[in-house]
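User: Structure please.
Assistant: Input sequence and predicted structure:
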Amino acid sequence: MGRTSTHSTTVILGRMFDAPVAAVFAALVEPDLRERVGNAGGDVVVLPALCDCRVGGRELLKFGPRTNPRFSVECIYHDIVPESRIVATEIFTVEGERHAVALTTWQLDPKGARTQLRVAAHLILLHPSASSDVPRMRHESMLDALETVLDIVAAGER
């Protein structure tokens, strides 16, 4: 018999970027930059299938280790305030099985010519083997890749 109860947890991450808030926000919502963020290197690969970053829009992607991107996310955007915040729900699946649902907020705060980005994902773990590791990996790899893409854009290689 499978586990019928759920467990909730919150993943909170933050990063300071050497880029203005407009550049960071663009890298989060513009499809061409989102695709570059997904392919920016590192140990984790992100493979976007759909990117419609607008209120009511959806994003579909697979991610995971380069040798086995077996995790999927379906994201639905509920609130977007340009250069300030993005609020979405995310459904995380592992090899087709639903593991977690999250309410996720990306909060951007300008700090002079820099930007503080905070990601808070409030998770409900549904699957007996679910943990916060998969959503944490997704967001940590996104922050790492975002930094790489912002450095490339700042160097004029857009």
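DSSP finds three helices and seven strands in the chain.
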